[in-house]
Design a protein that fits this description.
Length: about 375
């Protein structure tokens, strides 16, 4: 598969057929039902939930039960699951499948957050080869006909790469696709994604699709990644923060069209207000809670637009939909799309750092007895990778 015409083809993930090869990456506190529904209003794709901790799901905690809910308009229903204990992950998968709560399950092995990796979870876990294989094999067995996929990073750092071996193990375990965030855990979100690594993985995997993730800020980036790496599809994370219409651009691009959204202030304000409305619904009518949540999106939506600092500050402290309407009414709705200032990187980036790991984690690629007994502590809520 090479160039634009090839990636116009639909993407099949097990029995699921996507009209365009685009997946929304799980992002903690972002990819809830409200944001997923908003993105769907612009374009097609597979829209994945926030990361759900398997232990919390097995214990039926209120937060996990709320996060796995999908609106009736959401099809297929996709949930990302995080876990470090094969039995717990398998039990969580069996629950989701048995209760008909999803159509697709993604396993997170990409989280670089220190409080996860320092206990052996996330991007640190594939280093332990047998543990990784046991988790994936158990999840696939429990899922039955529901496709299970894996999202991972290149490895812990440049001296401890895991993506090639983990990719082959996951393929052998029967996953339906692989997604590679082409950074190491130590890179966090800094620097440039290594799209050549995506191509390297793709060249070694013959039976399932390989998707690329990292540095897709606009539709043209997705086409460039596909052309450079020969990947079967793309996973979009931070590039869509405050830009749900990116999925409309991606849909057009993968269909060979040059049509793109170039929203002026009026369209941005409409999308922001719609997002807030959907959050109210997601939080069961708790308008104050929804307004607290929408505050963190202000800088992303209005990046590069002519919105004064005072108004931005007030939007970031909004307390009700009526107050939100009042603030939005102060915008210049005639202001057009301002150009490159609204494009480019957004969201957290950070800087390279030594990955926090359990004691002696790198000494062996198999678990010690002490490491195995401590793994249950790694099941904490945090960001996807």
């Amino acid at each position: 598969m090479t160039g634009v015409s090839a990636v116009e083809k639909p993407l099949s993930i097990g029995p699921l057929s996507l009209s365009i090869p685009v997946v929304l990456a799980p992002m903690a506190g972002i990819t809830n039902t409200a944001f997923r529904r908003l993105c769907r209003e612009y374009g097609a794709g597979l829209y994945v939930s926030e990361m759900i901790t398997s232990r919390a799901l097995v214990e039926r905690t209120p937060t996990s039960m709320r996060l796995i809910k999908h609106h009736e308009s959401e099809t297929p229903r996709s949930i990302q699951l995080y876990g470090v204990d094969p039995a717990t992950v398998s039990e969580a998968v069996a629950f989701l499948v048995g209760e008909n709560l999803c159509d697709h399950i993604d396993l997170n092995f990409g989280c670089p957050v220190p409080k996860v990796t320092k206990k052996g979870g996330g991007a640190a876990l594939p280093w332990k080869k047998s543990l990784f294989r046991q988790i994936v094999e158990g999840a696939v067995a429990s899922a039955g006909d529901i496709p299970v996929t894996v999202k991972m990073r290149k490895g812990i750092d440049d001296n401890h790469l895991t993506f090639m071996e983990a990719g082959k193990a996951a393929e052998g375990a029967g996953v339906a696709s692989l997604a590679l965030h082409a950074r190491t855990a130590s890179q966090y979100y800094s620097g440039k994604a290594d799209w050549d690594a995506i191509g390297e993985l793709k060249s070694s995997i013959s039976s399932i699709p390989v998707l690329g993730n990292g540095d897709i800020w606009k539709a043209e980036d997705a086409l460039a990644m596909a052309a450079q790496s020969d990947c079967d599809g793309v996973v979009v994370g931070r590039g869509c923060l405050g830009r749900p219409w990116l999925f409309g651009d991606l849909q057009e691009a993968f269909r060979g069209s040059e049509k793109r959204y170039r929203p002026g202030v009026a369209e941005v304000a409409r999308a922001f207000r719609r997002h807030a409305e959907l959050l109210v619904e997601f939080f069961d009518g708790e308008e104050d809670r929804a307004c607290r949540d929408i505050r963190k999106h202000v800088a992303w939506y209005f990046k590069g637009y002519p919105v004064g600092g005072d108004l931005r500050a007030r939007l970031a402290t909004v307390e009700s939909l009526q107050q939100l309407d009042d603030f939005l009414g102060e915008l210049d709705y005639d202001a057009e799309y301002p150009g490159d200032g609204v494009e480019g990187p957004r969201g957290r980036q950070g800087s390279p750092k030594k990955t926090a790991l359990p004691e002696n984690w790198l000494d062996s690629q198999e678990l010690s007895s002490a490491q195995r007994s401590a793994l249950h502590l790694a099941e904490v809520d945090s960001s996807g990778g």
